[in-house]
């Protein structure tokens, strides 16, 4: 045990309840994450002893800041905050950054250090690549930042595009014209818009052409000025399509490219995304942000599934190297 206990004075009983959780469930999460510390809560004072006492004290300080700013803590919030403190990142700085207030009044914020790096990169660069597994908020945060830029009159329109790649299904068998056939591929982008702007607000901007949702093939031959352009599911572009897309960028535009290199469905596996950082990494105003399972903010099971797949891939890769020897 540390000879000098760390003491945290919490300003107010209402904050103490929010800090420890119902039946101390949040306190137990912290104790499980730092097994070598002893935490005692009496009244408004928290006493911490052990090798990690200072770090746990900083964790409580950060959580108090979040509570004072009106945020409610749940188990997933505390879990992500623990990860950030262990990585010497300030959770309060990450979790209090406001990207946008949605039509439903919900504030959109980054929820992990990786998401904060991603939103910062988009704000400060012309082209940002967000690469990572499902559930890391790549597309949703990009659309939120596009809406924010539109509302701030930094751009005149938002263009959302995806490659219409057939992942085990045939487009030709779907009913309707070409737009009806590709609509299922674009549906996740519509879902993000409806969540952020509401169905009526989204529809109004879509009808005016202020927001355009279209398959990647429709980008050929265009020059896109004063636009916030998002290419989603970029792992399903070919190298030729990726080059075509990146050369559409006009004056006053910002581009976000999102993708997951573990979910390539492009025929023959010729994806335009893997290896692109080696080609464009030194180009000014281009930034690559790699998100990981730590940045997954969907249900806990999604993070567990991503981790299981990564473990299996690493094991298969290791076995392959062993056979090569």
Explain the overall architecture:
It is globular and about 65 Å long. α2 (25-33) packs parallel to α4 (75-86). The model is unreliable at 166-175 (pLDDT under 50). It is α/β, with parallel strands linked by helices. Helices cover 45% and strands 16% of the residues. It has eleven helices and eleven strands. The strands form three sheets. It has a six-stranded parallel sheet. It has a three-stranded antiparallel sheet with strand order 1-3-2, with helices on one face.
Question: Quick gist of this model?
Answer:
The chain is of the alpha/beta class and 325 residues long. The chain has helices at residues 13-20, 25-33, 53-68, 75-86, 91-95, 113-124, 138-151, 178-208, 239-246, 276-280, 300-324, and strands at residues 6-9, 37-42, 45-50, 100-101, 107-108, 127-131, 157-162, 211-215, 227-231, 254-259, 286-290. Strands 8-7-9-10-6-11 form a 6-stranded parallel sheet. A 3-stranded antiparallel sheet has the order 1-3-2, covered by helices on one side. Strands 4-5 form a two-stranded antiparallel ribbon.
